Sequence to fold (63 residues):
Amino acid sequence: MLPDGCSVVVGLSGGADSVALTHFLLRYSRAHGIRVTAAHVNHGLRGARADADERFVREFCAR
Fold:
C-alpha cells in the first residue's frame, strides 16, 4: 500500500469520506511509521457551513 516511513497529505474537507480516510491513515500510520498531514481549504463559498467545516477540521486535527 504505502511504503513504511513515507509522508502523506490528506485533503480533509470535514465530510464523512475524508474523515474516514483520515481515521484509516492515522491507524495505519502507527504501525508503519507514516507521517500524516491534513490539508483543508475554506474557500468561503458556502458561508457559515464552510466556516463550520473549518472549525470541525481544526478540532479534529487538535485531537
Summary: The chain has one domain: 7-62. Strands lie at 7-11, 35-39.
